[in-house]
Design goal:
The complex is a heterodimer of chains A (322) and B (348).
Chain A lengths: L2 H24 L16 H10 L5 E4 L4 H6 L4 H8 L23 E4 L6 H14 L6 E6 L6 H13 L3 E7 L2 E2 L2 E2 H4 L6 H8 L2 E5 L4 H18 L3 E6 L20 H9 L2 H11 L5 H20 L20
Helix pairs in contact in A: 1-2, 1-11, 1-12, 2-9, 5-6
Chain B lengths: L2 E2 H15 L4 E4 L15 H5 L4 E2 L5 H14 L3 E5 L9 H8 L2 H4 L8 E7 L14 H5 L5 E3 L4 H13 L4 E6 L6 E2 L15 E4 L4 E5 L2 H15 L4 E5 L2 E3 L4 H10 L2 E5 L8 H11 L10 E4 L9 H7 L3 H12 L24
Parallel strand pairs in B: 2-3, 2-4, 4-5, 5-7, 6-7, 10-11, 10-13, 13-14
Antiparallel strand pairs in B: 1-8, 6-12, 9-11
The chains are: A alpha/beta (322), B alpha/beta (348).
């Protein structure tokens, strides 16, 4: 892997982290008035997969999708504007945090109902195939997605029709505040479930985001070449509450010990140490990269002050296409 | 040669598949031996199995897959042999199909047509006979179309397929065999959202759609023989609902009968029509309007129960007598109530 790729992976993770932290820090100002699910702790999967996809590849996601949107190339400014309810948002402020889109980069959309976007991604893949396109569709899901019937229906169709789909399952162990062990049998592995249905299935680790990127790249090329669905499970962890900007260990559904154990193996921390230790970048270089990303995120955020309150009148005719 | 409703649908599908090379048709039964009540005959042979395909029994996923395909480059016609099965797909229909264009700021729409068949009689019972147009009409982002005659089915299906939005196209099973002498081809751009005047008269105004249109057409001769003449308006489209002709007619007749004979009464299309008429200050009725619906009870299966459950010709005539205050002399032949005609046999 060349230096440029290392840099890209590191920067993208960092950018997502800064964006999410910016939202978290400012959420209590009550200007972002929509349910917001932050990806802090889960950036590595998004960054590595987003960069492993081609621009023409399609991705689609679920409620915790800021990272996926940004990783596919989505504009930070438009994300902030969307959360603030401005017409300049990626969905004109109609969708909010859970309904992001960026067609220019083929991020078709994220939707709020668990597993809702899965069959839509599959339909996009079928259409790609019928139109002889060589692109693939990446469908981001969570651990709870495999508890919905539509997941099985969609995966089955993918296999019957041999579609270029890759499922990336971010298993963060909690559906809202309910642990996986209460929702699925303890010894059954999600990726084995997908394998039993007939998909090629893998379990990857997020700890080293550079390795993760290479693994993604390999699997994506296989999907592209063979037109066959692959499923990837990755264990990950969100540092903040399910929905909102705060720490939530006080709720008692998870322990501080558990949270800290995941913070210790934060892939972003790993990436930084790795780059310095392997002498790929000097610490000072990374500091200056960080500073630059931080500055850009802040500028994009301050841009919100210049936006005008939009009027409902301007959007009410968007229900139907004329 | 006469053309049936099912043949009209088949012709519309064939012509649209030819017209738009990207159009896709799918559903359970599209390519089976019965060819979806004959409506998909010849499609696979003409357009190939990529464009006309059988699906897994996965209503919810298949709806999402259709939405995904139509978001990319392939508008779709999805079909279900009974509406009731489509209830498994409400998440995809309501949360995705209906919302997509609006929710993402008008960037891309979902050109999907969903054909749903409603059953009646021959023991269709509680879960094979529901006609839920009022559910669908309630959702912003959906259009709902319910043609009555073969020509309507032909023109409206073409219009639905060309519409850039999701359209719910509801066919009553009893209409598939109904016939017209020939197809009346109309301007496709002026189909969805336009009601139609079928006949005129001064005694009262009757509003129908889908099966109820046929029910009133079957009584027309007898009513005319009794010197009773009426304005008959067929809605054609449930959403957007066009009541312009109805309102115009009511200014003349001042008497309204709404035949919503395949709906339950609460929050029905019939009650919606009455509400809109009531809210219009310019309309003064000379008598309280009448609305005929099914009871607020699911359809039973037994043929002995359905005799009382479904709306009969006598029920309709009695209501008309009430509305215009006049005795009607009609000899009603002893008919079997749970089939559309003597040729129709079950099981479905």
């Amino acid at each position: 892997m060349n230096k440029k790729t290392y840099k890209k992976i590191y920067e993208l993770q960092k950018k997502i982290r800064f964006v999410e932290e910016k939202i978290s820090l400012n959420y209590q100002n009550d200007l972002m008035r929509c349910p917001t699910h932050l990806s802090i702790g889960q950036e590595a999967v998004a960054a590595a997969s987003g960069l492993a996809l081609n621009k023409k590849d399609i991705s689609i996601s679920y409620h915790r999708s800021h990272a996926h949107y940004l990783a596919k190339g989505g504009s930070v400014k438009k994300l902030f504007a969307e959360l603030h309810g401005f017409e300049e948002g990626c969905s004109k402020g109609i969708g909010g945090s859970m309904h992001l889109t960026d067609l220019k980069n083929n991020f078709y959309g994220s939707t709020a109902i668990v597993s809702n976007s899965i069959p839509i991604g599959v339909g996009l893949a079928y259409s790609l195939k019928l139109n002889n396109q060589k692109n693939i569709v990446c469908i981001y899901i969570g651990d709870a997605s495999v508890e919905e019937g539509v997941f099985y229906e969609s995966l089955n169709f993918c296999i019957v029709k041999k579609l270029p789909v890759v499922f990336i399952c971010e298993n963060n162990f909690y559906s809202v505040y309910t642990h996986l062990d209460e929702r699925q049998p303890k010894n059954r592995k999600i990726y084995k479930l997908a394998k039993a249905i007939g998909a090629k299935s893998h379990k990857l680790k997020q700890d080293n985001p550079f390795d993760l990127f290479l693994n993604f790249k390999k699997i994506f090329e296989k999907v592209r070449k063979t037109n066959f669905p692959h499923f990837i499970e990755i264990e990950t962890y969100r540092f903040l509450e399910h929905c909102g900007p705060n720490d939530d260990t006080k709720l008692g559904y998870r322990t501080l010990k558990e949270l800290n154990s995941w913070k210790k193996k934060d892939p972003l921390k790993f990436a930084r140490n790795f780059l310095v230790k392997k002498n790929i970048f000097k610490k000072e270089k990374l500091d200056s990269l960080d500073k630059n990303i931080f500055k850009n995120v802040n500028t994009d955020f301050s841009h919100m002050l210049n936006l005008k309150q939009p009027k409902f009148n301007r959007i009410k005719n968007l229900v139907y296409k004329k | 040669m006469n053309i049936t409703y099912a043949q009209a649908i088949n012709l519309a599908l064939t012509e649209e598949m030819k017209r738009n090379k990207k159009l896709i048709c799918f559903g359970l039964g599209v390519n089976d031996g019965l060819k979806f009540f004959g409506t998909t005959k010849g499609l696979k042979e003409k357009f190939g199995e990529n464009r006309v395909f059988e699906t897994p029994t996965s209503e919810n996923a298949m709806t999402g897959i259709g939405i995904g395909m139509s978001l990319y480059k392939n508008p779709c016609v999805m079909m279900h042999q009974r509406l009731d099965f489509f209830l498994l797909a409400m998440d995809q229909l309501v949360n995705s199909g209906a919302k997509w264009h609006y929710m993402f700021g008008g960037t891309r729409s979902v050109p999907i047509t969903i054909r749903l068949v409603v059953g009646k009689g021959w023991g269709q019972g509680p879960t094979h006979s529901q006609s839920l147009q009022s559910w669908f009409a309630h959702i912003p982002g959906l259009k709902v179309v319910m043609p009555s005659l073969p020509s309507d089915a032909y023109n409206l299906l073409k219009a639905s397929i060309r519409d850039p939005n999701p359209v719910i196209f509801i066919e009553h099973r009893w209409l598939h065999g109904s016939e017209e002498k020939s197809l009346v081809k109309k301007n496709i751009n002026k189909q969805i959202g336009f009601s139609k005047l079928l006949c005129t008269g001064n005694d009262f105004t009757v509003v129908t759609y889908s099966l109820s249109t046929i029910e009133i057409l079957a009584l027309k001769k007898d009513l005319n023989k009794n010197n009773i003449y009426f304005d008959h308006i067929d809605l054609q489209t449930i959403k957007p609902l066009d009541l312009n002709l109805v309102k115009k007619s009511l200014k003349k007749t001042k008497k309204l009968l709404v035949l919503d004979t395949i709906s339950h009464p609460i929050c029905s299309i019939g009650s919606e029509i009455l509400s809109q008429i009531f809210l219009d200050k310019n309309i003064k009725l000379s008598k309280a309007p009448l609305l005929i619906t099914l009871p607020d009870v699911p359809a039973p299966t037994s043929t002995f129960y359905t005799k009382d459950y479904y709306i009969s010709k006598e029920d309709i005539l009695k209501n008309i007598e009430n509305l215009i205050n006049k005795k009607i002399n009609v000899k009603i032949k002893n008919i079997i109530h749970d089939v559309p005609d003597s040729k129709f046999k079950g099981p479905f």
